[in-house]
Amino acid sequence: MKKKEIKVRKFLSETQSLMNFKKLFTNESALEKTITLPDLNRPGLFFSGYYEHFDNKRIQIIGKAEISFLSQMEEHIRNKHIEKFLASKPPLIIFAHTTKPLPFFIEKSKQFNIPILQTDTKTTRVIGMLTSYLEDVFSPSKTIHGNLLEVHGVGVLILGASGVGKSESSLELLERGHCLIADDVVTITKKMGRFLIGSGHQMIKHHVEVRGLGIIDIHHIYGASSIRNEKEIDIVVALEDWDTSKTYERLGLEDNIYTLLDLPLPHILIPVKPGRNIAILIEVAAASYRLKQVGIHPATQIEKKMLNVIKKTPSGANIKS
Known about the structure:
single chain, Rossmann fold, 2 domains, 11 helices
C-alpha cells in the first residue's frame, strides 16, 4: 500500500476555514514541503536542551507554554535551541493561541525555508482539530465493488459478482425502512487502526443503478431518512449464485472471517437462487449479529442442549425428540 503524504499547500487550503491561519512565513518552495506523518509535536523538551526522541518529521505546535519558557532564557541559549530546532527542518510550524515567534525565529525559518503559520485558536483546540483532520488524511483506505447499508443499526457490506442481485436486494431493504450508504462503489477507511468506515463515491452517492431501470435517486424517492453519508462496517454478506456442488452452512456453528485492511469482520455467504428472499436473509443476518454481540448465539445454545441430552442418555438408548 502506497504511503500517504500531503503537501503543506494542500494542508493549508483544507484547514484554513477551521484555523483561520495567518502566514508568518511561506513561499512557493516552503508550501511544497511534504507532511508524511499524521502526528503533532510540542517541542518544549527540545527547547530545554533534551534532543533525544525528537521527531522532526511531525508538524510542530508552539503555544503559550513554549513561548513563555523561551522568553525566560538567556538570549544566546535561546537562539542556540531555536537554531538547532529549525535546522532539523520540520515540515511545518504552527504558533497557536495568539502567540508569535521572536524575530530571530522568523529569520532562521527563512534561512532553513520552514513554513510558519499562526492562529488565535487555543493550543489544545488546534491539536484536537488537526489530529482529527490528519487522521482522516492518513488513514489507510481502499475502494471496492459492493453495496453498504445500515440494517437494524448494523453496517452491512454486501459483496458479490456483477448481476448477482446486490442492488435489487438493497432496494428491497430500503423498502423495508433501512438506510443506504453506498451502491456499487464503497470507499473503506480504517480509523484509529480498530474499525472500518464505509462511504459512497461523491459522484454517485445516494443513487442505485438497477438493470432495466437505470439510475435511481434514493434521496428523492425514499426521503432523507433512507440515506447516510457513512457507516461503520460490522459484517460482510457475500452473495453468490447457488452452486449445487458446494455444501453451504446450515447450522451457523462456525464463524467465518472476511479481512479488510487487515481487520477481521464476520463473513456470511448467502447462495442466491430463484425463490429466496435475499433482503429478508440479510435482515436476519444483521439481527443475528446484534444478538451475538450481547452473547446470544442460537446455534451454540442448541449444540449445548444436545450435548447435555447425550450425556444424560444411557448408552444404546434412543434420544427422544
